[in-house]
Amino acid sequence: MTMDLALLPTDTRFTESPDEGMPDCLCSRCGKVIAAETIAIRAWPADCRYELRYHPQCLGIEVYGDGGSDDWADFPEDQ
Question: Could you tell me if residue 76 is inside a domain?
Answer without folding.
Answer: no
